[in-house]
Amino acid sequence: MAHFSLLNLPTFNEPRGSLTVMEDALPFKVVRTYWIYGADGQTRGGHRHTHTRQALIAINGNISIFMNDGITRETIELNHPGQCLLVEPKDWHTMTFGPGSILLVMSSHSYDRSEYIDTPYE
Predict the structure, then answer these.
(1) What band does 14 get if pLDDT is binned at 50, 70 and 90?
(2) Across the chain, what does the average pLDDT equal?
(3) Phi, psi of 10 (to 5 degrees)
(4) How far, CA to CA in Å, does 44 sit from each of 7, 27, 69, 73, 89?
(5) With the CA atoms of 13, 15, 17 and 18 taken in that order, what torsion angle do they form, in degrees rounded to the nearest 10?
(6) Looking at residue 110, what DSSP letter applies?
(7) pLDDT, tens digit (0-9, with 9 covering 90-100), for 80-107
(8) pLDDT tens digits, residue range 59-70?
(9) Residue 17, by phi and psi: left (phi above 0), alpha (psi -120 to 50) or beta?
(10) Residue range 5-33: average pLDDT?
(11) Using CA atoms, how far apart are residues 87 and 93, in angstroms rounded to an integer?
(12) Could you give the CA distance from residue 56 to residue 2 in angstroms, rounded to a whole number?
């Protein structure tokens, strides 16, 4: 069982395709949404936050998310658009992108560089 919160989003499959629903799925209001792509083989992130919460979804491909909350370290593979990883402010995280991967990020706060913590846990 994962130490970090991995949500299985409601997904409806049928012959015409699949539909995944985000409505009321997150424990915070989404203020900022962005996606990262074209990062094949790259590792991004490498920080934690003072107050921002995030939800990560691999819309396409495979993304390895390394998480460390100062107690537990775990690597979580996101490879299905029906899975959503919650990243709490205390969670140091890096994201390593597989070929053709697209990562959707939803944040609880607007971008503020001053609330990033760039020092990892020892």
Answers:
(1) very high
(2) 96
(3) -60, 120
(4) 22, 24, 17, 17, 17
(5) 0
(6) -
(7) 999 999 999 999 999 999 999 999 999 9
(8) 999 999 999 999
(9) left
(10) 95
(11) 8
(12) 15
CB 47 within 8 A of CB 118: yes
The edge-to-edge listing of strands for the beta sheet with 116-117 is 73-78, 63-68, 92-97, 43-49, 116-117
Instruction: Please name each of the domains of the chain with its CATH number.
Output: 26-113 (2.60.120.10)
Which residues in 56-81 are b (16+ Cβ under 10 Å) and which e?
bbbbbbebbbbbbbeeeeeebebeeb
Average pLDDT over residues 27-54: 97
